Amino acid sequence: MVRFENVGLRYGMGAEILRDLTFDIAPQSFQFLTGPSGAGKTTLLRLILLALRPTRGLISLFGADSATLDKNALMALRRKVGVVFQDFRLLDHLTTYQNVALPLRVQGKDEPSYRAEVLELLDWVGLGQRLHVYPPVLSGGEKQRAAIARALIMRPELLLADEPTGNVDPQMARRLLRLFQELHKSGTSVVIATHDLNLMDQFEGARRLVLGDGRLHIYD
Ligand SMILES: Nc1ncnc2c1ncn2[C@@H]1O[C@H](COP(=O)(O)OP(=O)(O)OP(=O)(O)O)[C@@H](O)[C@H]1O
Questions:
Q1: Ligand 1 atom 28: the closest Cα is on which residue?
Q2: Structural domain of residue 176, as residue ranges?
Q3: Would you say 43 and 91 are in contact if contact means Cβ atoms under 8 Å apart?
Q4: Are 44 and 21 a contacting pair, CB within 8 Å?
């Protein structure tokens, strides 16, 4: 699903942030991506999404070599990936409900065909009472949950989530982890970048990708 071979990344003329990364993300797998602040977790997620080009090495996404993809092919691949950004990236002029429904609307689907599904998902993430509120009025944790719902609504083949429980209390973090686990059981590969040791301990046996000093250590 994702393959990195000897990937290195530097920003501008700086030192290499990531060095010699070689790993796979298998279909229907679940992994945590962890490491100290500044280790390069967000950078690695951006590389997987092909939002950043590697300075060296090869990356393939769904079997396509990143170096040879044109813009249209890249857009088509990205549609199969759900992303929860650290800064949420909700649209402020759309309500919570409209933000979550947006990927479906963009696909040309009719509101009646997805309304129940969007409402159910928003209920699950605890936003059932916040449907008609605009993002500037939402708390950090509420924005985070809206961003998660938007990433999940398309049932992506691959989910990349950057600190998806960073702004919620432990109880909600457990609930969201259950949601990610259910998504995984239904066939999605999940990558969760997190510092949260408690969260990782709740899913013993999950693969851990640990970044440190520019290198990746994998614990299967
Ligand atoms: N656009 C950029 N230009 C230059 N340097 C950058 C850029 N983005 C990130 N960096 C640097 O790359 C390093 C890795 O950053 P990154 O955000 O990937 O780390 P992280 O592990 O996600 O950190 P955190 O856990 O604090 O979110 C940091 O030293 C950061 O300052």
A1: 38
A2: 2-219
A3: no
A4: yes
Probe target for ligand 1 pocket from 10, 41, 191, with the most ligand atoms within 8 Å of CB: 41
What is the value of pTM for the model shown? Answer: 0.92
pLDDT tens-place values along the chain, 220 residues long: 999 999 999 999 889 999 999 999 999 999 999 999 999 999 999 999 999 999 999 999 999 998 888 889 998 899 899 999 988 999 999 999 999 999 999 989 999 999 999 999 999 889 999 999 999 999 988 999 999 999 999 889 999 999 988 888 888 888 889 888 988 998 999 999 998 888 899 888 899 999 999 999 999 8
CA separation for the pair 146, 126 (Å, rounded)? 9
Q: What tokens does 77 get?
A: 């691949």
C-beta 42 within 6 A of ligand 1: yes
CA 91 to chain centre: 18
Residue nearest to atom 18 of ligand 1 (CA): 40
Domain harbouring 12, CATH code? 3.40.50.300
Say yes or no: CB of residue 212 within 6 Å of ligand 1: no
How many domains is the chain partitioned into structurally? 1
User: Distance from the CA of 167 to the center of ligand 1, in angstroms?
Assistant: 19
